[in-house]
Write a structure and sequence with these properties.
Number of strands: 6
Strand order of the largest sheet: 2-3-1-4-5-6
Largest sheet: 6 strands, mixed
């Protein structure tokens, strides 16, 4: 199910087996932009907080992995449900052995060996529900999210509108995929989209434009998969099931993006300042959990030392980049390390620094595991800085 290019060949080595720890500066290095110094023990502080967070994040990780997820792909036979499943999970649904008891019209099949992630595939909903046996009914009752696929080229039918209304009545989140958009001439697409949404009585926010199996001459890769993954991850995050879902996705790097964004948002909201002299505990715990989540998606074992190495390497090594910018910006705004924070401008900057460092840690972790734990330190830090500054730009643009 995994994209070979996204899966690292081996588990990352332990630092004891060859990973060097970050080099501690012998004296504070001057900040050429802000004229401020960074305490020499920053890497030590990070490692201490990360070490404390290891046990608590392990409990949260095990809870996340103990969940069960049921995702349904519904729609007419010509809508492209099987193509959607193939584009997201890299599997041919017809080759998966269904759970005994599911029918030809409603097939229930596990994505993983443990049977924790179930896929439901059915051509409709209203007629099927009355016909299925206990396995089918149990699957429908346990639905977490529904992906309803519509052939945008042909517009919506009365049966599709009826089915969609029946599904909505369950109270489950429903995403409508207006599929096969590649078959519609570019200048006509918006008209087809607007008409289909009106026919189905669907808000644009609850729909994604897709081409799960596009014509090769029109598109090199499936269209809309990233948006579908983002929507599903957001819905599953409410019940803590987003990690288990992400582990099944075909593109591991793309599967991590919603996890990284969500962690960065949580760090921002927490208001913790991941800079020297501030309370690192909350944001460090978020970042340690994020590293472990990314490792789970890539199905690579990660021990405490590897997580601590990644964190201390990118953050202390980033003193010449984003972290140093954050310290300078906060001090320029009036923040004094170790004091209470009251000014709105400092709080806003602190949220940006917390989110940016977390986003950078997440992206650096993805690259680390993609490389099989062989990415050079300078390149790891470069990934962190690029991602963290990109987060800053995004937040500044959104203001």
């Amino acid at each position: 199910m995994s994209n070979p290019e996204d899966r690292p060949p081996t588990a990352p080595p332990s630092p004891a087996a060859g990973l060097r720890t970050p080099t501690e500066p012998t004296a504070p290095a001057a900040n050429p932009e802000a004229g401020e110094d960074v305490p020499v023990n920053y890497a030590e502080q990070i490692r201490m907080e990360a070490d404390r967070a290891w046990s608590s994040t392990g409990v949260a990780l095990q809870h996340a992995l103990s969940q069960k997820v049921t995702v349904a792909f519904l729609g007419s036979a010509s809508s492209g449900k099987d193509s959607a499943i193939r584009a997201l999970f890299g599997i041919d649904f017809g080759e998966i052995s269904p759970i005994p008891g599911s029918t030809d019209r409603l097939r229930v099949a596990p994505l993983d060996k443990a049977g924790q992630v179930l896929l439901v595939n059915a051509p409709g909903f209203g007629d099927v529900r009355a016909e299925v046996d206990r396995v089918g009914r149990d699957a429908l009752d346990a639905l977490d999210v529904v992906v309803y696929v519509v052939n945008c080229e042909g517009g919506a039918t009365i049966d599709e509108r009826r089915d969609l209304a029946t599904i909505r009545a369950l109270g489950r989140p429903v995403l409508v995929c207006l599929n096969k958009i590649d078959l519609i001439r570019p200048h006509q697409r918006q008209g087809f989209i607007d008409a289909t949404l009106a026919q189905l009585d669907v808000r644009p926010a609850d729909a994604v434009i897709t081409a799960f199996d596009p014509l090769p001459q029109l598109a090199e890769a499936p269209i809309g998969v990233t948006e579908v993954v983002a929507w599903l991850s957001t819905q599953l995050e409410v019940s803590g099931k987003e990690l288990l879902f992400a582990k099944q996705l075909r593109n591991k790097g793309a599967a991590c993006e919603p996890l990284i964004l969500a962690a960065a948002q949580r760090a921002s909201i927490a208001g913790a300042l991941p800079v020297p002299g501030a309370d690192l505990a909350v944001v460090t715990a978020i970042q340690v959990k994020l590293i472990r989540d990314v490792a789970e998606v890539f199905e690579v074992p990660v021990d405490r030392e590897v997580a601590l190495f990644i964190l201390s390497e990118v953050l202390s090594g980033g003193m010449r980049g984003f972290v140093r910018w954050g310290v300078g910006a906060l001090k320029a705004a009036g923040w004094i390390p170790g004091t209470q924070i009251a000014e709105a401008a400092i709080l806003a900057l602190g949220a940006m620094v917390a989110g940016g460092t977390t986003y950078g840690v997440g992206q650096a972790s993805v690259r680390w595991f993609q490389s099989g734990g062989k990415l050079e330190s300078d390149k790891l830090r470069a990934v962190f800085d690029t991602a963290a500054f990109a987060w800053r730009t995004r937040r500044e643009t959104a203001r």
